[in-house]
Amino acid sequence: MKEFDTIAAVATSIGEGGISIIRVSGNDALKITKKIFVGKNDRKLDNIKSYTMRYGFIVDCDGNKIDEVIISFMKGPRSFTAEDTIEINCHGGVVVTNNILNEVIRAGARLAEPGEFTKRAFLNGRIDLSQAEAVIDIIRAKTEISARSALQQSEGIISKEINELRAHLLGIIASIEATVDYPEDELEEVTADIATRKSSNILMEINRLLQSADEGKILREGITTTLVGKPNVGKSSLLNTILKETRAIVTDVPGTTRDIIEEYINFKGIPIKLIDTAGIRETEDVVERIGVEKSRQMIEMADLVLFVLDNSRPIDEEDKEIFEYIKPKNYLVIINKIDLDKEMDISELDIEKSRIIKTSIKGEVGIDKIKQRIEEMFFGGKIDYSDVYVTNNRHKQALIRAKESMRHAIDALSVTLAIDLASIDLRDAWRHLGEITGDTLEEDIIDKIFAEFCLGK
Ligand code: GDP
Ligand code: ZN
Protein backbone atom coordinates (compact mmCIF):
# COMPACT_ATOMS: atom_id res chain seq x y z
CA MET A 1 0.00 0.00 0.00
CA LYS A 2 1.34 3.41 -0.97
CA GLU A 3 1.25 6.39 1.39
CA PHE A 4 -1.05 9.22 0.40
CA ASP A 5 -2.63 12.12 2.22
CA THR A 6 -6.29 11.98 3.16
CA ILE A 7 -8.71 13.47 0.64
CA ALA A 8 -12.37 14.47 0.79
CA ALA A 9 -15.11 15.54 -1.62
CA VAL A 10 -18.85 15.53 -2.07
CA ALA A 11 -19.59 12.28 -3.89
CA THR A 12 -23.19 13.01 -4.81
CA SER A 13 -24.28 15.68 -7.26
CA ILE A 14 -24.60 19.12 -5.76
CA GLY A 15 -28.15 20.38 -5.39
CA GLU A 16 -31.25 19.57 -3.42
CA GLY A 17 -31.77 15.89 -2.78
CA GLY A 18 -32.73 13.31 -0.21
CA ILE A 19 -29.18 12.80 0.98
CA SER A 20 -25.67 13.89 0.13
CA ILE A 21 -22.55 11.86 0.71
CA ILE A 22 -19.20 13.30 1.66
CA ARG A 23 -16.46 10.81 1.04
CA VAL A 24 -13.18 10.83 2.99
CA SER A 25 -10.33 8.51 1.98
CA GLY A 26 -6.85 7.95 3.39
CA ASN A 27 -5.02 6.83 6.51
CA ASP A 28 -6.44 9.66 8.58
CA ALA A 29 -10.06 9.29 7.45
CA LEU A 30 -11.20 7.96 10.80
CA LYS A 31 -9.02 10.28 12.87
CA ILE A 32 -10.34 13.32 10.99
CA THR A 33 -13.96 12.25 11.33
CA LYS A 34 -13.59 11.66 15.07
CA LYS A 35 -12.78 15.35 15.49
CA ILE A 36 -16.07 16.52 14.03
CA PHE A 37 -18.52 13.73 14.90
CA VAL A 38 -20.59 13.40 18.04
CA GLY A 39 -22.35 10.06 18.27
CA LYS A 40 -25.81 9.48 19.65
CA ASN A 41 -25.53 8.97 23.45
CA ASP A 42 -21.92 10.13 23.09
CA ARG A 43 -20.89 6.88 21.50
CA LYS A 44 -17.30 7.25 20.25
CA LEU A 45 -15.93 6.16 16.88
CA ASP A 46 -12.90 4.57 18.58
CA ASN A 47 -13.97 0.98 18.18
CA ILE A 48 -16.04 1.27 14.99
CA LYS A 49 -15.85 -1.92 12.95
CA SER A 50 -15.38 -1.98 9.18
CA TYR A 51 -18.66 -2.05 7.24
CA THR A 52 -20.71 -0.63 10.08
CA MET A 53 -22.52 2.66 10.52
CA ARG A 54 -22.96 5.21 13.31
CA TYR A 55 -25.70 7.73 13.83
CA GLY A 56 -24.98 11.19 15.23
CA PHE A 57 -24.10 14.78 14.39
CA ILE A 58 -21.34 16.68 12.64
CA VAL A 59 -20.33 19.65 14.79
CA ASP A 60 -18.16 22.69 14.15
CA CYS A 61 -15.14 23.75 16.26
CA ASP A 62 -17.43 25.37 18.84
CA GLY A 63 -19.47 22.23 19.19
CA ASN A 64 -22.48 23.61 17.29
CA LYS A 65 -24.43 20.97 15.40
CA ILE A 66 -24.24 21.29 11.60
CA ASP A 67 -26.35 18.32 10.54
CA GLU A 68 -27.71 14.97 11.59
CA VAL A 69 -25.68 12.26 9.82
CA ILE A 70 -24.96 8.60 9.40
CA ILE A 71 -21.32 7.64 9.11
CA SER A 72 -20.16 4.48 7.43
CA PHE A 73 -16.66 3.10 7.71
CA MET A 74 -14.86 0.89 5.22
CA LYS A 75 -11.43 -0.19 6.32
CA GLY A 76 -8.79 -0.47 3.60
CA PRO A 77 -8.05 -2.38 1.50
CA ARG A 78 -11.70 -3.39 1.27
CA SER A 79 -13.00 -0.09 -0.04
CA PHE A 80 -13.37 1.66 -3.40
CA THR A 81 -9.98 3.39 -3.05
CA ALA A 82 -8.41 0.47 -1.15
CA GLU A 83 -7.77 3.00 1.65
CA ASP A 84 -9.63 3.63 4.91
CA THR A 85 -12.80 5.34 3.80
CA ILE A 86 -15.50 7.21 5.67
CA GLU A 87 -18.76 8.21 4.04
CA ILE A 88 -20.85 10.85 5.73
CA ASN A 89 -24.54 10.69 4.79
CA CYS A 90 -26.16 14.03 5.49
CA HIS A 91 -29.28 15.87 4.38
CA GLY A 92 -29.12 16.69 0.70
CA GLY A 93 -28.95 20.46 0.85
CA VAL A 94 -26.25 22.56 -0.77
CA VAL A 95 -25.43 24.54 2.39
CA VAL A 96 -25.24 21.64 4.88
CA THR A 97 -23.26 19.54 2.43
CA ASN A 98 -20.71 22.29 1.89
CA ASN A 99 -20.52 23.07 5.59
CA ILE A 100 -19.73 19.47 6.42
CA LEU A 101 -17.11 19.30 3.67
CA ASN A 102 -15.53 22.46 5.11
CA GLU A 103 -15.36 20.89 8.57
CA VAL A 104 -13.73 17.78 7.13
CA ILE A 105 -11.11 19.93 5.40
CA ARG A 106 -10.57 22.01 8.55
CA ALA A 107 -10.04 18.78 10.50
CA GLY A 108 -7.15 17.86 8.22
CA ALA A 109 -8.31 16.42 4.90
CA ARG A 110 -7.40 17.89 1.52
CA LEU A 111 -10.05 18.65 -1.09
CA ALA A 112 -9.86 15.86 -3.68
CA GLU A 113 -9.17 16.58 -7.32
CA PRO A 114 -11.60 15.31 -9.98
CA GLY A 115 -11.26 11.54 -10.29
CA GLU A 116 -8.81 11.29 -7.41
CA PHE A 117 -10.70 8.54 -5.55
CA THR A 118 -10.67 6.36 -8.66
CA LYS A 119 -7.05 7.28 -9.24
CA ARG A 120 -6.24 6.04 -5.73
CA ALA A 121 -7.95 2.75 -6.53
CA PHE A 122 -5.67 2.55 -9.58
CA LEU A 123 -2.46 3.65 -7.83
CA ASN A 124 -3.18 1.26 -4.97
CA GLY A 125 -3.44 -1.56 -7.50
CA ARG A 126 -7.07 -2.45 -6.83
CA ILE A 127 -8.09 -1.79 -10.44
CA ASP A 128 -6.16 -1.16 -13.63
CA LEU A 129 -6.52 1.83 -15.92
CA SER A 130 -9.08 0.28 -18.28
CA GLN A 131 -11.24 -0.58 -15.28
CA ALA A 132 -10.90 2.96 -13.94
CA GLU A 133 -11.93 4.38 -17.29
CA ALA A 134 -14.96 2.09 -17.27
CA VAL A 135 -16.07 3.66 -14.00
CA ILE A 136 -16.53 6.99 -15.74
CA ASP A 137 -18.17 5.24 -18.68
CA ILE A 138 -20.78 3.79 -16.33
CA ILE A 139 -21.51 7.25 -14.97
CA ARG A 140 -21.73 8.82 -18.42
CA ALA A 141 -23.56 5.96 -20.14
CA LYS A 142 -26.34 7.28 -22.34
CA THR A 143 -28.05 3.99 -23.01
CA GLU A 144 -28.75 0.77 -21.19
CA ILE A 145 -26.33 -1.26 -23.27
CA SER A 146 -23.50 1.23 -22.92
CA ALA A 147 -23.98 1.06 -19.14
CA ARG A 148 -23.96 -2.72 -19.29
CA SER A 149 -20.82 -3.00 -21.38
CA ALA A 150 -19.06 -0.39 -19.21
CA LEU A 151 -19.89 -2.44 -16.12
CA GLN A 152 -18.35 -5.51 -17.74
CA GLN A 153 -15.23 -3.54 -18.53
CA SER A 154 -15.05 -2.27 -14.95
CA GLU A 155 -14.94 -5.91 -13.91
CA GLY A 156 -11.81 -6.37 -16.01
CA ILE A 157 -12.99 -8.12 -19.16
CA ILE A 158 -10.54 -6.16 -21.37
CA SER A 159 -7.73 -6.32 -18.84
CA LYS A 160 -7.88 -10.09 -18.76
CA GLU A 161 -7.39 -10.38 -22.52
CA ILE A 162 -4.62 -7.80 -22.58
CA ASN A 163 -2.76 -9.40 -19.69
CA GLU A 164 -2.87 -12.80 -21.39
CA LEU A 165 -1.50 -11.35 -24.63
CA ARG A 166 1.28 -9.61 -22.75
CA ALA A 167 2.23 -12.78 -20.91
CA HIS A 168 2.50 -14.64 -24.23
CA LEU A 169 4.61 -11.83 -25.66
CA LEU A 170 7.02 -12.01 -22.74
CA GLY A 171 7.38 -15.74 -23.35
CA ILE A 172 8.37 -15.18 -26.97
CA ILE A 173 10.78 -12.38 -26.03
CA ALA A 174 12.43 -14.61 -23.44
CA SER A 175 12.99 -17.45 -25.91
CA ILE A 176 14.41 -15.08 -28.54
CA GLU A 177 16.77 -13.47 -26.07
CA ALA A 178 17.95 -16.84 -24.87
CA THR A 179 18.78 -17.75 -28.47
CA VAL A 180 20.62 -14.49 -29.06
CA ASP A 181 22.56 -14.84 -25.81
CA TYR A 182 23.49 -18.50 -26.37
CA PRO A 183 23.91 -18.80 -30.14
CA GLU A 184 26.19 -21.85 -29.66
CA ASP A 185 23.01 -23.87 -29.06
CA GLU A 186 22.26 -23.43 -32.77
CA LEU A 187 18.56 -23.41 -32.17
CA GLU A 188 18.16 -20.09 -33.89
CA GLU A 189 16.21 -21.15 -36.91
CA VAL A 190 13.77 -23.28 -34.98
CA THR A 191 13.18 -20.43 -32.55
CA ALA A 192 12.51 -17.98 -35.37
CA ASP A 193 9.88 -20.34 -36.76
CA ILE A 194 8.16 -20.84 -33.45
CA ALA A 195 8.37 -17.16 -32.64
CA THR A 196 6.82 -16.25 -35.99
CA ARG A 197 3.94 -18.62 -35.43
CA LYS A 198 3.29 -17.43 -31.90
CA SER A 199 3.59 -13.80 -32.96
CA SER A 200 1.10 -14.33 -35.76
CA ASN A 201 -1.36 -15.73 -33.25
CA ILE A 202 -0.97 -12.66 -31.09
CA LEU A 203 -1.39 -10.40 -34.11
CA MET A 204 -4.61 -12.25 -34.90
CA GLU A 205 -5.90 -11.65 -31.40
CA ILE A 206 -5.04 -7.96 -31.62
CA ASN A 207 -6.88 -7.76 -34.95
CA ARG A 208 -9.90 -9.44 -33.42
CA LEU A 209 -9.98 -6.85 -30.64
CA LEU A 210 -9.56 -4.05 -33.17
CA GLN A 211 -12.42 -5.40 -35.23
CA SER A 212 -14.64 -5.22 -32.17
CA ALA A 213 -13.89 -1.51 -31.86
CA ASP A 214 -16.44 -0.44 -34.46
CA GLU A 215 -19.21 -2.22 -32.64
CA GLY A 216 -17.67 -1.13 -29.35
CA LYS A 217 -17.99 2.49 -30.38
CA ILE A 218 -21.61 1.80 -31.19
CA LEU A 219 -22.15 0.20 -27.78
CA ARG A 220 -20.73 3.29 -26.20
CA GLU A 221 -22.22 6.03 -28.32
CA GLY A 222 -24.98 4.42 -30.34
CA ILE A 223 -25.12 4.01 -34.10
CA THR A 224 -24.52 7.48 -35.41
CA THR A 225 -27.09 7.65 -38.15
CA THR A 226 -27.24 10.62 -40.45
CA LEU A 227 -30.20 11.54 -42.60
CA VAL A 228 -29.10 13.13 -45.85
CA GLY A 229 -30.89 14.16 -48.98
CA LYS A 230 -32.07 17.27 -50.70
CA PRO A 231 -34.57 19.62 -49.05
CA ASN A 232 -38.19 18.47 -48.96
CA VAL A 233 -37.61 14.76 -49.61
CA GLY A 234 -38.96 13.81 -46.15
CA LYS A 235 -35.96 13.62 -43.78
CA SER A 236 -37.56 15.45 -40.89
CA SER A 237 -40.80 13.55 -41.39
CA LEU A 238 -38.87 10.29 -41.12
CA LEU A 239 -37.05 11.43 -37.99
CA ASN A 240 -40.26 12.54 -36.35
CA THR A 241 -42.11 9.34 -37.23
CA ILE A 242 -39.35 7.15 -35.83
CA LEU A 243 -39.19 9.25 -32.66
CA LYS A 244 -42.91 9.09 -32.18
CA GLU A 245 -42.89 5.31 -32.41
CA THR A 246 -39.76 4.65 -30.41
CA ARG A 247 -38.84 5.50 -26.91
CA ALA A 248 -36.52 8.48 -27.04
CA ILE A 249 -33.68 8.07 -24.59
CA VAL A 250 -32.20 11.53 -24.60
CA THR A 251 -33.70 14.48 -26.40
CA ASP A 252 -32.00 17.61 -27.60
CA VAL A 253 -28.41 16.92 -26.69
CA PRO A 254 -27.04 20.39 -26.02
CA GLY A 255 -23.66 21.64 -27.06
CA THR A 256 -23.68 20.08 -30.50
CA THR A 257 -23.44 22.00 -33.72
CA ARG A 258 -26.23 24.51 -33.84
CA ASP A 259 -27.72 23.47 -37.13
CA ILE A 260 -28.19 19.77 -36.54
CA ILE A 261 -30.73 17.90 -34.44
CA GLU A 262 -29.61 14.82 -32.51
CA GLU A 263 -31.91 12.30 -30.89
CA TYR A 264 -31.20 9.01 -29.16
CA ILE A 265 -33.61 6.21 -29.82
CA ASN A 266 -33.63 2.56 -28.94
CA PHE A 267 -34.17 -0.23 -31.49
CA LYS A 268 -34.48 -3.44 -29.48
CA GLY A 269 -31.74 -2.30 -27.13
CA ILE A 270 -29.46 -0.98 -29.85
CA PRO A 271 -28.99 2.74 -29.30
CA ILE A 272 -29.27 4.89 -32.37
CA LYS A 273 -28.18 8.47 -32.51
CA LEU A 274 -30.25 10.01 -35.27
CA ILE A 275 -28.96 13.19 -36.79
CA ASP A 276 -31.08 15.33 -39.04
CA THR A 277 -29.12 18.00 -40.77
CA ALA A 278 -30.31 21.59 -40.86
CA GLY A 279 -33.18 21.10 -38.44
CA ILE A 280 -32.76 24.50 -36.83
CA ARG A 281 -32.97 26.35 -40.10
CA GLU A 282 -36.38 24.94 -40.75
CA THR A 283 -37.70 26.27 -37.48
CA GLU A 284 -36.26 29.62 -38.45
CA ASP A 285 -38.46 29.41 -41.51
CA VAL A 286 -35.58 29.88 -43.86
CA VAL A 287 -35.42 27.72 -46.95
CA GLU A 288 -33.67 24.53 -45.89
CA ARG A 289 -30.50 24.05 -47.79
CA ILE A 290 -27.55 22.00 -46.75
CA GLY A 291 -24.59 22.46 -48.98
CA VAL A 292 -22.98 19.38 -50.40
CA GLU A 293 -19.88 20.15 -48.34
CA LYS A 294 -21.88 20.09 -45.11
CA SER A 295 -23.51 16.80 -46.07
CA ARG A 296 -20.09 15.38 -46.80
CA GLN A 297 -18.87 16.19 -43.29
CA MET A 298 -21.95 14.62 -41.74
CA ILE A 299 -21.53 11.50 -43.85
CA GLU A 300 -17.89 11.23 -42.81
CA MET A 301 -18.85 10.98 -39.12
CA ALA A 302 -21.71 8.54 -39.57
CA ASP A 303 -21.82 4.78 -38.82
CA LEU A 304 -24.90 4.62 -41.01
CA VAL A 305 -26.29 6.98 -43.62
CA LEU A 306 -29.94 7.11 -44.56
CA PHE A 307 -30.08 8.72 -47.99
CA VAL A 308 -33.62 9.93 -48.60
CA LEU A 309 -34.87 10.48 -52.15
CA ASP A 310 -38.19 11.75 -53.45
CA ASN A 311 -39.94 9.30 -55.79
CA SER A 312 -41.75 12.18 -57.51
CA ARG A 313 -38.59 14.00 -58.56
CA PRO A 314 -35.95 12.85 -61.07
CA ILE A 315 -32.41 12.08 -59.88
CA ASP A 316 -30.22 15.14 -60.42
CA GLU A 317 -26.55 16.07 -60.20
CA GLU A 318 -26.75 16.90 -56.50
CA ASP A 319 -28.16 13.44 -55.72
CA LYS A 320 -25.36 11.86 -57.70
CA GLU A 321 -22.74 13.89 -55.91
CA ILE A 322 -24.10 13.04 -52.46
CA PHE A 323 -24.29 9.38 -53.43
CA GLU A 324 -20.58 9.32 -54.31
CA TYR A 325 -19.76 10.28 -50.72
CA ILE A 326 -22.13 7.67 -49.31
CA LYS A 327 -20.96 4.71 -51.38
CA PRO A 328 -17.99 3.72 -49.19
CA LYS A 329 -20.12 3.93 -46.03
CA ASN A 330 -22.81 1.79 -44.47
CA TYR A 331 -25.92 3.17 -46.10
CA LEU A 332 -29.55 2.63 -46.94
CA VAL A 333 -31.41 4.45 -49.69
CA ILE A 334 -34.95 5.46 -48.78
CA ILE A 335 -37.12 6.13 -51.79
CA ASN A 336 -39.86 8.16 -50.20
CA LYS A 337 -43.24 9.45 -51.39
CA ILE A 338 -44.16 6.28 -53.27
CA ASP A 339 -47.74 7.47 -52.89
CA LEU A 340 -46.94 10.08 -55.57
CA ASP A 341 -46.38 9.44 -59.27
CA LYS A 342 -42.98 8.05 -60.06
CA GLU A 343 -40.64 10.47 -61.82
CA MET A 344 -37.36 8.97 -60.77
CA ASP A 345 -35.17 6.31 -62.34
CA ILE A 346 -33.19 4.77 -59.48
CA SER A 347 -30.97 2.87 -61.91
CA GLU A 348 -29.19 6.16 -62.55
CA LEU A 349 -27.45 5.49 -59.25
CA ASP A 350 -25.41 2.35 -58.86
CA ILE A 351 -27.09 0.93 -55.72
CA GLU A 352 -27.19 -2.65 -54.45
CA LYS A 353 -30.81 -3.70 -54.45
CA SER A 354 -30.76 -4.90 -50.85
CA ARG A 355 -30.01 -1.38 -49.69
CA ILE A 356 -33.12 0.19 -51.20
CA ILE A 357 -36.27 0.67 -49.12
CA LYS A 358 -39.42 2.21 -50.55
CA THR A 359 -41.55 4.28 -48.22
CA SER A 360 -44.39 6.66 -47.89
CA ILE A 361 -43.53 8.29 -44.65
CA LYS A 362 -46.62 10.43 -44.76
CA GLY A 363 -48.72 7.29 -45.23
CA GLU A 364 -46.63 5.42 -42.63
CA VAL A 365 -45.62 2.78 -45.15
CA GLY A 366 -42.21 1.09 -44.97
CA ILE A 367 -40.98 2.52 -41.65
CA ASP A 368 -40.78 -0.93 -40.06
CA LYS A 369 -38.66 -2.13 -42.94
CA ILE A 370 -36.13 0.60 -42.20
CA LYS A 371 -35.92 -0.44 -38.55
CA GLN A 372 -35.61 -4.08 -39.44
CA ARG A 373 -32.77 -3.47 -41.91
CA ILE A 374 -30.87 -1.37 -39.37
CA GLU A 375 -31.18 -4.12 -36.77
CA GLU A 376 -29.85 -6.67 -39.23
CA MET A 377 -26.93 -4.47 -40.25
CA PHE A 378 -25.50 -4.14 -36.74
CA PHE A 379 -24.66 -6.93 -34.31
CA GLY A 380 -26.68 -9.25 -36.57
CA GLY A 381 -29.70 -7.77 -34.80
CA LYS A 382 -28.53 -8.89 -31.38
CA ILE A 383 -25.69 -8.00 -29.03
CA ASP A 384 -23.65 -10.82 -27.58
CA TYR A 385 -22.54 -9.72 -24.14
CA SER A 386 -20.13 -12.61 -23.76
CA ASP A 387 -17.96 -11.01 -26.45
CA VAL A 388 -15.31 -8.48 -25.61
CA TYR A 389 -15.83 -5.11 -27.25
CA VAL A 390 -13.20 -2.39 -27.31
CA THR A 391 -15.31 0.66 -26.53
CA ASN A 392 -12.61 3.15 -25.63
CA ASN A 393 -10.82 5.07 -28.37
CA ARG A 394 -7.63 5.29 -26.31
CA HIS A 395 -7.55 1.50 -26.13
CA LYS A 396 -8.15 1.28 -29.85
CA GLN A 397 -5.22 3.59 -30.60
CA ALA A 398 -2.93 1.55 -28.33
CA LEU A 399 -4.02 -1.64 -30.12
CA ILE A 400 -3.23 -0.04 -33.49
CA ARG A 401 0.28 0.77 -32.27
CA ALA A 402 0.70 -2.75 -30.87
CA LYS A 403 -0.42 -4.17 -34.21
CA GLU A 404 2.20 -2.12 -36.07
CA SER A 405 4.93 -3.35 -33.74
CA MET A 406 3.78 -6.97 -34.18
CA ARG A 407 3.92 -6.56 -37.96
CA HIS A 408 7.48 -5.26 -37.76
CA ALA A 409 8.42 -8.11 -35.45
CA ILE A 410 7.03 -10.72 -37.84
CA ASP A 411 8.86 -9.11 -40.76
CA ALA A 412 12.10 -9.14 -38.81
CA LEU A 413 11.65 -12.79 -37.81
CA SER A 414 11.41 -13.80 -41.45
CA VAL A 415 15.04 -12.67 -41.79
CA THR A 416 16.82 -15.01 -39.42
CA LEU A 417 19.70 -12.61 -38.91
CA ALA A 418 17.36 -9.98 -37.56
CA ILE A 419 15.95 -12.09 -34.77
CA ASP A 420 17.29 -9.74 -32.11
CA LEU A 421 15.59 -6.82 -33.87
CA ALA A 422 12.31 -8.71 -33.61
CA SER A 423 12.64 -8.80 -29.87
CA ILE A 424 12.78 -4.99 -29.81
CA ASP A 425 9.54 -4.80 -31.79
CA LEU A 426 7.91 -7.39 -29.56
CA ARG A 427 8.88 -5.33 -26.53
CA ASP A 428 7.27 -2.30 -28.19
CA ALA A 429 4.07 -4.27 -28.72
CA TRP A 430 4.18 -5.42 -25.09
CA ARG A 431 4.55 -1.79 -23.99
CA HIS A 432 1.70 -0.54 -26.21
CA LEU A 433 -0.65 -3.19 -24.85
CA GLY A 434 0.38 -2.16 -21.35
CA GLU A 435 -0.83 1.37 -22.09
CA ILE A 436 -4.36 -0.01 -22.02
CA THR A 437 -4.08 -1.38 -18.51
CA GLY A 438 -1.88 1.52 -17.44
CA ASP A 439 1.18 -0.64 -16.68
CA THR A 440 3.33 1.21 -19.15
CA LEU A 441 1.89 4.68 -19.32
CA GLU A 442 3.60 7.92 -18.43
CA GLU A 443 2.38 9.66 -15.31
CA ASP A 444 1.23 12.85 -17.03
CA ILE A 445 -0.98 10.87 -19.42
CA ILE A 446 -2.50 9.02 -16.49
CA ASP A 447 -3.12 12.36 -14.76
CA LYS A 448 -4.83 13.66 -17.88
CA ILE A 449 -7.16 10.67 -18.01
CA PHE A 450 -8.27 11.11 -14.40
CA ALA A 451 -8.66 14.88 -14.81
CA GLU A 452 -11.61 14.15 -17.11
CA PHE A 453 -13.50 12.53 -14.25
CA CYS A 454 -16.10 14.30 -12.16
CA LEU A 455 -15.40 15.67 -8.71
CA GLY A 456 -15.99 13.21 -5.92
CA LYS A 457 -15.47 10.09 -8.05
P1 GDP B 1 -37.03 17.42 -45.45
O1 GDP B 1 -36.84 18.79 -45.99
O2 GDP B 1 -36.24 16.44 -46.23
O3 GDP B 1 -36.81 17.33 -43.99
O4 GDP B 1 -38.57 17.04 -45.74
P2 GDP B 1 -39.80 17.12 -44.75
O5 GDP B 1 -39.83 15.98 -43.84
O6 GDP B 1 -39.84 18.47 -44.15
O7 GDP B 1 -40.98 16.92 -45.79
C1 GDP B 1 -41.20 17.80 -46.85
C2 GDP B 1 -42.65 17.68 -47.30
O8 GDP B 1 -42.89 16.39 -47.86
C3 GDP B 1 -43.62 17.83 -46.17
O9 GDP B 1 -44.71 18.63 -46.60
C4 GDP B 1 -44.08 16.42 -45.88
O10 GDP B 1 -45.38 16.36 -45.36
C5 GDP B 1 -44.02 15.79 -47.25
N1 GDP B 1 -43.86 14.34 -47.21
C6 GDP B 1 -43.04 13.62 -46.41
N2 GDP B 1 -43.15 12.30 -46.67
C7 GDP B 1 -44.07 12.19 -47.64
C8 GDP B 1 -44.64 11.07 -48.34
O11 GDP B 1 -44.31 9.90 -48.11
N3 GDP B 1 -45.56 11.36 -49.29
C9 GDP B 1 -45.97 12.62 -49.59
N4 GDP B 1 -46.86 12.80 -50.53
N5 GDP B 1 -45.45 13.68 -48.94
C10 GDP B 1 -44.52 13.49 -47.99
ZN1 ZN C 1 -36.03 18.61 -42.71
UniProtKB/TrEMBL annotation:
Keywords: Cytoplasm, GTP-binding, Hydrolase, Magnesium, Metal-binding, Nucleotide-binding, Potassium, tRNA processing. It is found in: Cytoplasm. Homodimer. Heterotetramer of two MnmE and two MnmG subunits. GO terms for cellular component: cytosol. Belongs to the TRAFAC class TrmE-Era-EngA-EngB-Septin-like GTPase superfamily. TrmE GTPase family. GTP binds at residues 232-237, 251-257, 276-279. The keyword Nucleotide-binding applies. Mg(2+) binds at residues 236, 257. Its cofactor is K(+). This is tRNA modification GTPase MnmE. Residues 222-379 form the TrmE-type G domain. It comes from the Bacteria. GO terms for biological process: tRNA methylation; tRNA wobble uridine modification. Exhibits a very high intrinsic GTPase hydrolysis rate. Involved in the addition of a carboxymethylaminomethyl (cmnm) group at the wobble position (U34) of certain tRNAs, forming tRNA-cmnm(5)s(2)U34. GO terms for molecular function: GTP binding; GTPase activity; identical protein binding; metal ion binding. It comes from Oceanirhabdus seepicola. The gene is mnmE. K(+) binds at residues 232, 251, 253, 256. It holds the Pfam family MnmE_helical. The lineage of its organism: Bacteria, Bacillati, Bacillota, Clostridia, Eubacteriales. Its EC number is 3.6.-.-. SUPFAM superfamilies: P-loop containing nucleoside triphosphate hydrolases (SSF52540), TrmE connector domain (SSF116878). It is an enzyme of class 3 (hydrolase). (6S)-5-formyl-5,6,7,8-tetrahydrofolate binds at residues 23, 87, 126, 457. NCBIfam families: mnmE_trmE_thdF (TIGR00450), PRK05291.1-3 (NF003661), small_GTP (TIGR00231).
